[in-house]
From TrEMBL:
Protein localization: Cytoplasm
Signal peptide region: none
Record field: catalytic activity: ATP + H2O = ADP + phosphate + H(+)
Gene for this chain: deaD
Protein name: ATP-dependent RNA helicase DeaD
Single GO MF descriptor: helicase activity
Positions with biased composition (Basic and acidic residues): 559-603
Family: Belongs to the DEAD box helicase family. DeaD/CsdA subfamily.
Motif Q motif: chain residues: 5-33
Sequence segments annotated as region (Disordered): 439-491, 553-614
PROSITE patterns noted in UniProt: DEAD_ATP_HELICASE, HELICASE_ATP_BIND_1, HELICASE_CTER, Q_MOTIF
DEAD-box RNA helicase Q domain sequence ranges: 5-33
Function, in words: DEAD-box RNA helicase involved in various cellular processes at low temperature, including ribosome biogenesis, mRNA degradation and translation initiation.
């Protein structure tokens, strides 16, 4: 169907149609062709589609076409399981509404400054894209008004179920107008998701689309598990050893293109930024320099790199992992052109492994772990290049008599051997780029084989169902590898463990499973974090706000051990037998429904041994 239907045939509004034409879209994907007419007609849909099939445009385009810009209250609400997906969907709405003056979309998620969100909601927005926990926060405080809500989208519903948010999703659904239009998208259809469809969707049309994403067989795909501390170090090593012709390095933001280009230029590489802030003339000039070999490396964003077709691009580096497989396929498609072979290198932070698995599943291609070049390997490579320069010079320059006489005279006058002179000249030549490289070798904190074993074999990885967090086996925390910190937010401030985990994970880059025991008290809380967190990260965390209060994190000086955790909070809940309602407090102080976010702490404990976080 999508082979014969064009976007211009789908009755989209003129501004939306113009925006997608500007970005080069002509033919809708299968899920877009099937979903857009139903949503334009006001019907509910149940879409079963993998990431990378174009589902964001499938709901964004028709819902934008029905938007009334004269109403400043939210008309569209999209729920997403992670802040990364929320940001991505919000950016997509902004792109598709480029020809709609006065349009406003707002992503809201935990760990972000609440004051900024409140200010923007007060000014007025048309579309809100958020994670369930933060959407609930705004609904409770009355800052998010859904009285004029027309459409609600549940994106990656099975992922929200896996993360324990499905109860929150139902709570939100119950606090939206009954007249709303609902679209639910899920890669799989577990029983709990089917129950949500039965209870909250009306005569929904089911659309099931199989992913056909694939990548070229002539592109070698590898990844390296890297942390923010040594990301640039890892890239530098790869550039030293990898024999590349032209290279495109993808990052997420415009600012990052400039910063990384400057850092690479400082290390002696011919690199240039390519982003949307550059005018067309500068952009075309950078691409032309890449084509002619005057430029070797381009650092680009997804939008800026669209349409780049340069045969000499032999490598693509995903310095920042893309949020969906569709973007990944577009990125690595910049290499392997005209039948040539190419190589795609993907940097994956520990907390981004889910995105790696999603990409592998959607593209149906394995991405293998690469071994980072060691300092000794880089040194050998530089020495080989240096000695080759000497060999080439001796071959190309047949008459070196002038330099022979000059050095012979110097040797005689200063009583220095020819070997010593050669060593001094070699030192001068390599001083800006030393042959002897001193890298601190980066070792993975957890073996990749063990990591793969934990999540099962490759063949059934994508389809294996995971139970709720409280049913999964817990990892035991090793106290000698954890430090206990005090944060100045507690139960009286309506803080939840899920809020604390989200704030720390987002700001410090610590994967949530490495965040240890969280203990809520009335006016403060304690949290166990891996030993070795840097002062810079702690300074940043001090300013992070949870429930609109700064964490003011500091090393806890109280006693460790079971007696510390067993102490009763000062507040008396009035239990006649003197017992403490710790359980009730942890589940949210007697709320009607258990908060699934509070269960996130069940699998945070491990024997993680980081050296240092930056």
């Amino acid at each position: 169907m999508s082979d014969t239907i064009l976007f211009s045939d789908l009755a989209l509004s003129a501004p939306v149609l113009k925006a997608i034409q500007n970005v080069g879209y002509e033919v809708p994907s299968p899920i877009q062709a099937a979903a857009i007419p139903v949503l334009l007609a006001g019907g509910d849909i149940l879409g079963m589609a993998q990431t990378g099939t174009g589902k964001t445009a499938a709901f964004a385009l028709p819902l934008l076409s029905k938007l009334d810009l004269s109403k400043s209250e939210p008309q569209i609400l999209v729920l997403a399981p992670t802040r990364e997906l929320a940001i991505q969907v919000a950016e997509a709405f902004q792109k598709y509404a480029a020809e709609m003056p006065g349009f406003h979309v707002l992503p809201i998620y935990g760990g972000q400054d609440m004051t900024s969100q409140l200010r923007q909601l007060k000014r007025g927005v048309h579309v809100v894209v958020g994670t369930p926990g933060r959407v609930m926060d705004h609904l409770r405080r009355g800052s998010l008004n859904l009285n004029n809500l027309q459409s609600l989208v549940l994106d990656e519903a099975d992922e929200m179920l896996r993360m324990g948010f499905i109860d929150d999703v139902e709570w939100i659904l119950e606090h939206t107008p009954a007249t709303r239009q609902t679209a639910l998208f899920s890669a799989t259809m577990p029983r709990e998701i089917r129950k949500v469809c039965d209870n909250y969707l009306r005569d929904a049309k089911e659309i099931k689309i199989a992913s056909t994403q694939s990548t070229g067989d002539n592109i070698e795909q590898v990844y390296w598990m890297v942390s923010g501390t040594n990301k640039l170090d890892a890239l530098t090593r790869i550039l030293e050893v990898e024999p590349f012709d032209g290279m495109i390095i993808f990052v997420r933001t415009k600012t990052a293109t400039v910063e990384l280009a400057e850092k690479l230029e400082a290390r002696g590489y011919s690199a240039s930024a390519l982003n949307g802030d550059m005018n067309q003339q500068l952009r075309e000039r950078a691409i032309e320099r890449l084509k002619t070999g005057k430029l070797d490396i381009v650092i680009a964003t997804d939008v800026a790199a669209r349409g780049i077709d340069v045969e000499r691009v032999s490598h693509v580096v995903n310095y920042d992992i893309p949020y969906d497989s569709e973007a990944y396929v577009h990125r690595i498609g910049r290499t392997g052109r005209a039948g040539r072979s190419g190589k795609a290198i993907l940097f994956v932070a520990p907390r981004e492994k889910r995105l790696l698995y999603t990409i592998e599943k959607a593209t149906k291609k394995p991405i293998t772990l690469m071994e980072l070049p060691s300092g000794a390997t880089v040194t050998k490579h530089r020495i080989d290049q240096f000695t080759q320069q000497i060999t080439d010079t001796l071959k190309e320059q047949s008459d070196l008599s002038f330099f022979n006489d000059l050095l012979a005279e110097y040797s005689h006058k200063n009583d220095v051997s020819p070997e010593e002179i050669a060593s001094a000249l070699a030192y001068l030549l390599q001083r800006e780029r030393p042959l002897q490289v001193k890298f601190t070798d980066i070792k993975p904190e957890r073996s990749e084989r063990r990591d793969r074993d934990d999540r099962g074999g490759r063949d059934d990885r994508g389809s294996r169902e995971r139970g709720p967090r409280e049913d999964r086996p817990r990892r035991e925390r090793s106290d000698e590898n954890m430090d206990r910190y005090r944060i100045e937010v507690g139960r009286n401030h309506e803080a939840r463990p899920g809020d604390i985990v989200g704030a720390i994970a987002n700001e410090a880059g610590i994967e949530s499973r490495f965040i240890g025991h969280i203990k809520l008290h009335d006016e403060f809380s304690t949290v166990d974090l891996p030993t070795g967190i840097s002062k810079d990260v702690l300074a940043k965390l001090k300013k992070v706000r949870v429930r609109n209060r700064p964490l003011e994190i500091s090393l806890d000086t109280g006693p460790r051990g079971d007696d510390y955790f067993s102490r009763k909070p000062k507040r008396d809940f009035g239990s006649r037998d003197g017992g403490s309602r710790e359980g009730a407090g942890r589940e949210g102080g007697g709320r009607d429904k258990p908060r699934f976010n509070d269960r996130d702490n069940a699998s945070k404990k491990s024997g993680y041994r980081p050296k240092k976080f930056d």
